[in-house]
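Narrative progress, year one. The postdoctoral researcher (J.K.) led the effort to move from monomer predictions toward full complexes, under supervision of the PI. The following entry was the first complex the group processed end to end, covering 573 residues in total.
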Amino acid sequence: MAGLRDLYQEVILEHSKVPRNYREMTGADHRAEGFNPLCGDRFTVFLHMDGDAIRDISFQGSGCAISKASASMMTQILKGKSRSEAEKLFRKFHDLVTGRAHPSETEMGKLAVFSGVSEFPARVKCATLAWHTLQAALEGQQDAVSTE
Amino acid sequence: MTTLANVSLDPAGSPLPQPRPYDVERIRADFPILHQQVHGHPLVYLDNAATTQKPRQVIDALIRYYECDNANIHRGVHALSQRATDKYEQARKTAQEFLGAEDCREIIFVRSTTEAINLVAQTYARQNLRPGDEVLITAMEHHSDIVPWQMICEEKQAKLRVAPINEAGELCLDEFERLLTGRTKLVAVAHLSNALGTINPVRQMIAMAHAKNIPVMVDGAQAAPRLPVNVRELDCDFYAFSGHKIYGPTGIGVLYGKLALLESMPPYQGGGDMISSVAFERTVYNKVPHKFEAGTPDISGPIGLKAALDYVSRLGIENIERHENQLLEYATNRISAMAGIKLIGTAKHKAGVLSFVMEGVHPHDIGTILDQQGIAIRTGHHCAQPVMERYGIPATARASFGLYNTKEEIDALASGIQKVQEVFG
C-alpha cells in the first residue's frame, strides 16, 4: 500500500476535507468552469486580476480528494503571483504529476506532495483539472473546459 | 462441450440430466483472466456491468475460426467461405433461440446495443416521426438510450418525453402510462438499469403501450446476461443486447425486431450484402436480416457470441440469475451495514448491480483504493448522468456481479471499503 500512502498524503487529505479559498467570488473579473466527464468532477475557478497579477483566487465545486486538494493548494500558492508565473507553475506541476520531472527538480514547494499521482495515470486528470480551469479563466474562455 | 440440446437427444430417452449444484469454482476455471494478481492481490472482478470476462470456450471459438475457417461470407463458392457462412448463420439461429424469437430473420447482427438503438432511431423512427410526435423513455436510461432518440427527435421536430423514477429508483408506472398519448410513436426502455440495478416491469409497460398501438424497444444490455428473456412472451417490438456483456467478444451485438416491422423499415447503411441488385439507376435491397447488415460484417463476433450464448445456456440462465441474486442479497446486507455507506438504487426488483456512495469520500477515491487491493469496480456516472442528477450526486461507486463471482469476493470488497474508511479516517 506504499503507493496509496504516496497518493493520499496527509496534506492532500487535509486540504480535501477543509479546502482553502473555497467560495464564490463576487466581483470576479475572470471565471471558468472545468469538468471531467469521466468522473463527474466539476469546479469553477474565480479570479480577481490586478493588471498581470492574481490579486485574489477562489474555487467552488465537487470532486474527488485529489482534484479538490489540488484546487485548494493551487489557490493558496497562486495568490499574488503573476500570470506568467502561474503558467510556469502549471507546466512544472504537469511534469510532476505525469512523472516527467522529479519533485526535487521542480522547485514546487508544497505542491511536491502531488508527486505520488504519477504512479496513478488514471488520476492525472484529477490533479490537473483545477489548473486547466485556471488556464481557461486566464484566457477568458466562455465554454466549460473539459479534461477529455 | 456438452449442450443441453445434445443430452436431450439421448437415445435411452432419459430426461434432461439431473441439475448439478452451481459449481462456481468449476466455472471460474473456465475463465483464464480471473487467475491473476493485481497490485499483489488476487483479482476480484466486480465490473461486470461494464464488460464481462470471456470463458475459454469463447476464446477457443475465436481461435478456431481464424485458424481453420476464416473467409468472407455469403459470396464465395469455396469451402472456407461456406464454412464461415454456415458458422455465421448458425450464430444467428443460436441468438434467435436464446431470445425465444420466432424466426431467425428477426435477428440482426450489429456492433453493440448502442448501434442497435441507433439503427432503430435512424430507420424506424426516421420513417415514422412527424413534427410534434413523441418518443417516451425513462429517467433511468443509459446515455445510449437517450442520445440516439434526442438526435432523431431534433431532426424530426419531435419531443423526447421522460417517465420519472421514485427515490428507490423504480419507474413511476402511473406517470409512464399517463405519458403514453396519441402523440407517442415509440417507447424505449431499459430492461435492467445499469446504474441502479432496477428491473423494469417491461411486460406490463409493453402491454400498456400496445393498448395504444405504440411499439416498444427494450434495451437488454444488462438484462440478457442476468435474466431469462423471451421476446415472444414480452411481446416487445425490438430488443437489443451486447455480446461483450454476456461473456462474448466486444464489437458484436444483437438487434431483435418483429419481422413485419423490420420488413417495413428502410435500410440503415448502404453497401455490399444488403442489396439484391445494383444498377446506377436503381438498387433493389436484400431481404431482412441482410438488408441491415451492409458490408463485410464482424464474422468472428457472432461465432464468439454463439459460444458465449451456448456457455450461458448450458449453465442455465435461471441458475445464473439465482446465483447473482444470492450475491446481490449478500452484498446488499454486508455493504449497507457499513458506516457512512448509502445505497443508490433500492428497488424491490433488482439484479446484478450495487451502486453506493460513501460519506465524505468521492467514488473515484474509493475506486483507486479498491484497485490497489486488486478489486475492480466502476466509479463515475455510469453513462447515466440524468440518474446522478436525480439523486443530486456527481457519481457512485458500482459493484456489479457476474456468473463467476463468489461470496468471498464480496467479503474482499467489504474489507476493501473498510480500508477506504481507514485512509480517509
